[in-house]
Structures are given as C-alpha cells and as structure tokens.
Model the fold of this input.
Amino acid sequence: MKRIVCLISGRGSNLESILRTAEAERWEAEVPARVVAVISNRGDAAGLGHAATRGVPATVIEHQRFASREAFDAGLAAAIDAHAPDVVVLAGFMRVLGASFVARYTGRLINIHPSLLPVFPGLATHRQALAAGVRVHGATVHFVSNEVDGGAIIAQAAIGVLPDDSEETLAARVLQREHMLLPRCVRWLCEGRIELVNGRVAVRNLPPDALALVG
Ligand code: GRF
Done:
C-alpha cells in the first residue's frame, strides 16, 4: 500500500479532488494507495474540512510558531515522516521549502502550479498570463526541486485564453483542469508509471498522450 501525505495551505480543492478520485477509483484496492494524512501550515485552512469529511487524519504545523524557515522545515519533515510516506503532494501548499527538505523527498515530492511552466512561475499566474497576452494557459504538475516551480515537469493541462477572460474566469477554468491532472499524477507516481531519474521524468506503461491534457 503506497502511503500519500498531502500538504495544503488554504481552500484545499486540489486535496478534495485527490480524495474524491481515490474513493471513486477505489485506490486502496486498485493501486493500492491511500492518503494517510493531510498537513496544513495554517489552522484556518478550509481544506482541513475536506480531510475531516473523508476521515483522513489532519495536522496543523503553523509556520509562524517556528523561529526560522529551517526550523519550520524540520518540524514539517518530522510530521510528514511520522506517516512514512511514499509520495508527498503539495496540493496548494504556499510555503517555499528549503534545500535540505527538498533533498529529503526527492523523487517523491510533487507540486501543482497554475501555469504552463516554465512560463509564469511564482504567484498571480493568471494575472501574468493576461498581462502577457498568451492565448494558451494551464497547469503543470512537477517534481519539486530547489528552484521554485522549476522541477522536472510530469504533466500539463492546457486551455485556451478567451478575449474577455478575467483573472477569475481564467483561474476557474484552469482549476477544473488541475482537478483532473493532479489525481492522475499522484496515482501514476504510486503505480510507478512515472519516476524521477537523473532529474528527468521517466514514463512507463502510459499512453503517449497521457501527460498532455489539451482542450
Ligand atoms: C491552486 O491553483 C494550485 O495550483 C496552487 O494553489 C492553488 C490551490 O488551490 N498551487 P486549492 O487550495 O487546491 O483549492
């Protein structure tokens, strides 16, 4: 049984998509894999409610309670390691993690980012996309590396940008795709269909177009 730990900071809709998909696809029997814990760095994260609804144990590790970034990373790692995870998912986790944290989880730590990386790393990606005037936008799931939003790309989902799109309408359409993309990637990682090898993503037993969701 592959053990998944999800890290969140807020709304938790990506967490909810993982939990919902895991139930619908019967991951415990079919993969097998299970989300064993949810950890939030904010006590007021709405996503904690999704964990409670689905009966997944949740812990809050508030970053403000730690004297330094390193101390927070160490506290977070201890909380994660208590669950002996095979896969750690940053599902809307909004803290930058330090090099030793990243090294500890290399190859089993993935993130979802709301742009077609490598364009528009960082925050306010939908605003960046509208300002740049791009016609195609989307979301990326990638392995986490020391470069923020810079790790090896696993899969991407693309949507068209419409002439009258606002940040909100664009965000909503990208989010729909995020909810399709992230659960698939988590499942494939648990199944060993994707793997980080020498900084690149190795793929096996997946259809050629599985990692590119277009339209
Ligand atoms: C998502 O857009 C995700 O890509 C980004 O933060 C947002 C989190 O949303 N990293 P939610 O908490 O999963 O609803």
Remarks:
- The helical segments are 13-24, 27-30, 47-53, 69-81, 99-104, 125-132, 167-190.
- The mean pLDDT is 97.
